[in-house]
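Sequence in, structure out. Go.
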Amino acid sequence: MNGTSTALILVGLFLVGGIISFAKQKMPTQLIVLLSIGAALCLVAGVMRLEVWN
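Output:
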């Protein structure tokens, strides 16, 4: 696991925490959807960059 994949996974997990927090605060749905897309992209990019796949 290199630094870039670690950073992307951590940012994705941070955004997932933001999704949970915003959902509890009843924030607008579009904001939660935008955060979910960003979190999913970060997590997928971090997992795809892992060197396990090579």
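Check: The chain has a mean pLDDT of 92. The chain has two helices and no strands.
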